[in-house]
Input
Amino acid sequence: MTIGNQLTLPGLKTHFSHNRKSVGMAGEIAIALALQERGYPVAANHKWGDLQVWTKDMKKTAYIEVKTARRGKDGFYNFTLRKDGCTDHRNADLIILVCLLKTGDAIPFVVPVTVLYEQKKCSITSDPWNYKGKLSPYRQNLKTLSLEKPLAELGDFFDYIP
Output
């Protein structure tokens, strides 16, 4: 799969069905690839989040829950953060909300879990690039994806590796 300027996922249109499971997997893959390209070691971890990521100096690790949404009929990108019997975002350190556009572009919002801790759902209510709501300070670009600022917001909330 070729990664373009915006790290688009052109294979999403041709190789994935657009069911929820495939869309979710596409978001996880996009985030994992983007983090690896930025020098973060990444591993799959489905106990505490979708991904386990280490800081570049390998001294700290963070668990990341990736939530991916397409634009719904209401025009919103709706994310289910927790549902009984399923994954629970509150076990992770960071939540990355991925808005998948019809072009295959993925726009991530890297949010400390403390911001959305009590919520079961959240939405990006307009075009993700122009969205000005509560989560807009956490919007990033896949090409320059960084975890330093959201992890700094958490302070000692996330794990230190001895």
